[in-house]
């Protein structure tokens, strides 16, 4: 069973930075792609950023220029560097990993809270 463990969420002031980590129980090369999603209060869970096995990345428009997703296969870990944080970034952030074709298996972490507030 795949396990994804997120860490390093927390409380930060507007304009501050955080780096989230997601450590997998196996090599991240075993997945077609990994990503970060977030769910704000009263909102649906939406994608923030993704990275494929080949290193291609995508970002939601609100994250472009502020967030960077990256992977370290030696540590089985994917990161989300978040800079210039805004109150609207407040959410529970979830790590996702998916693999398989044509039937895709999705795996989720337990989530980590990010609160941007003064």
How is this structure best described in words?
By secondary structure, the protein is mostly beta strands. It is 0% helix and 52% strand. The chain has no helices and 11 strands. It has strands at 4-7, 10-12, 18-24, 33-39, 46-52, 57-59, 67-72, 77-82, 91-99, 105-108, 112-116. Strands 2, 4, 5, 6, 9, 10 and 11 form a 7-stranded mixed beta sheet that branches. A hairpin with a 6-residue loop joins β4 (33-39) and β5 (46-52).
Features:
single chain, 118 residues, mainly beta, 7-stranded mixed beta sheet, 4-stranded antiparallel beta sheet, 11 strands, globular
Categorize the overall geometry.
globular
β-strand number: 11
* Category by helix and strand content: mainly beta
On the 0 to 100 scale, the average pLDDT is 96
Gap between N and C termini: 40 Å
Poorly predicted runs? none
Strand content: over 45%
Rg value: 14 Å
Element order: H for helix, E for strand: EEEEEEEEEEE
Proportion of residues in helical segments: under 10%
Largest sheet: 7 strands, mixed
Number of helices: 0
């Amino acid at each position: 069973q795949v396990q994804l463990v997120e860490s390093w969420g927390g409380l930060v002031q507007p304009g501050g930075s955080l780096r989230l980590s997601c450590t997998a129980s196996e090599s991240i090369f075993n997945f077609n792609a990994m990503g970060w999603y977030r769910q704000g209060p009263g909102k649906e869970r939406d994608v923030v950023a993704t990275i494929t096995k080949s290193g291609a990345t995508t970002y939601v428009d609100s994250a472009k220029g502020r967030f960077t997703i990256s992977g370290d296969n030696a540590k089985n870990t994917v990161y989300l560097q978040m800079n210039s944080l805004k109150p609207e970034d407040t959410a529970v952030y979830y790590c996702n990993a998916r693999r398989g074709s044509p039937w895709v298996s999705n795996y989720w972490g337990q989530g980590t809270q990010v609160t941007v507030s003064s």
